[in-house]
Amino acid sequence: MYLRPYKKADAKTIISFCENETVFRKWTSDRYENYPITENDMNHKYFECNGDCTEEDNFYPMTACDENGIVGHFILRYINGDKNILRIGFVIVDSKKRGMGYGKKMIQLAVDYAFRIAGAKQITIGVFENNKSAYYCYKSAGFKDVLEDSPEICELFGEKWRILELSLERDDYFGRYFV
Question: Rounded to whole angstroms, what are the CA distances from 96 to 19, 61, 120, 158, 174?
Answer without folding.
Answer: 10, 22, 32, 28, 32
